[in-house]
Specification:
Blueprint (H helix, E strand, L loop, with lengths): L12 H15 L4 H35 L7 H40 L2 H18 L6 H5 L8 H7 L3 H25 L4 H21 L5 H12 L5 H27 L15 H24 L2 H24 L1
């Protein structure tokens, strides 16, 4: 632990503070492992504090300056902020300690233990499940009630009546990206054709929704936001670890074959960095899936029907909210 203070610069205030704290802990008989753990979690907590607190302060200032409003429950807000910081620390540490190593192990063992079809099935299921585990997906539920059913009936209908189907479509897009990425890792082909093959229809359907069917244009924002949702703190680490694990297993297999054949392993662009290409597909394919779902919804349900169902659902939700407020 004597060299833990080098990253902040010798003689800095933070380094001196850590030296002082470390000396106090050492004098009380704390082991080097325990002291390292204390400083590790302190650093993680400080990172989350510097990320969450400034955003919260900006929101408070915007409400106070531009809207002349203040929070009616500052104690609850402060408790929620502290809970968010602690939760983020534990969540990110859990990803680093458990989830990512398991995904790396799964990626390394899948090509060895299973045949290709089963490998693709596992990759697809894993891609769908990580979407449901993504925290940002939970934001769809409260935000769905804020949509105006009159101005955007298809958007309201998809985010409320078809909410589970919408999340499933996003998951299917991520699952398909996981399958394509796994095939790419195993075969060693370039990822560029896959990116172009998913980007062109995504942009083409977006143009159709904007100008060919204006009733679907409000869905475009949600569709493209889904690409950002699926690159969150769960999907990216797991898919990257899965891809890197598959790449390592493939390289080990090639090296074993090369030794048997007394030949050199061909060094091409195949390395662990190829695992990063899967994130691009995991961003594009959910957008494409939501666009396809929106177009199919417009084909199977007329505008008048969707408008009627959205209005009825909105009135029912308002009635339920009013009943809860009265009680």
């Amino acid at each position: 632990m004597e060299d833990y203070d080098t990253q902040d610069g010798e003689g800095s205030w933070c380094s001196k503070c850590r030296i002082w704290v470390d000396s106090k802990l050492r004098s009380r008989g704390w082991s080097p492992q325990s002291r390292a753990l204390i400083f590790h979690y302190s650093r993680l907590t400080w990172e989350q504090v510097t990320a969450v607190v400034p955003i919260s302060l900006i929101q408070v200032l915007v409400l106070a300056i531009f809207f002349k409003k203040t929070s009616s429950t500052p104690g609850i807000d402060a408790a929620g902020l502290i809970s968010a910081i602690v939760g983020l620390v534990l969540f990110l540490e859990g990803l680093r300690v458990a989830i990512m190593p398991m995904a790396l192990l799964v990626g390394a063992q899948l090509p060895v233990r299973l045949k290709l079809p089963l490998v693709l099935v596992v990759a697809f299921v894993l891609g769908v499940l990580v979407t449901y585990a993504e925290p940002a997906i939970a934001a769809i539920r409260p935000l769905a009630k804020l949509v105006d059913p009159i101005n955007a009936p298809y958007l309201y209908y998809m985010m409320n009546q078809q909410q589970e189907l919408l999340v499933l479509a996003i998951g299917l897009g991520v699952g398909l990206a996981s399958v394509v990425g796994t095939l790419k890792f195993l075969s060693g082909i370039s990822i560029k054709p896959f990116i172009a093959g998913s980007l062109l229809p995504t942009v083409g359907l977006a143009c159709y929704m904007q100008w060919g069917n204006p009733a679907l244009s409000p869905i475009l924002g949600v569709a493209w936001d889904c690409g950002g949702v699926t690159t969150g703190p769960v999907t990216v680490p797991i898919l990257l670890s899965l891809g890197v694990g598959v790449m390592k297993a493939q390289r080990q297999k090639q090296m074993a074959l090369a030794v048997l054949e007394d030949a050199a392993v061909k060094q091409s662009e195949g390395n662990t960095l190829e695992g990063f290409g899967i994130v691009t597909l995991a961003s594009l394919l959910p957008v494409l899936a939501v666009e396809v779902m929106a177009i199919l919804t417009s084909v199977t349900h007329s505008y008048d029907y969707v408008l009627e169902q959205a209005s009825l659902s909105h009135e029912r939700a308002n009635s339920e909210a009013a009943a809860v407020a009265d009680t």
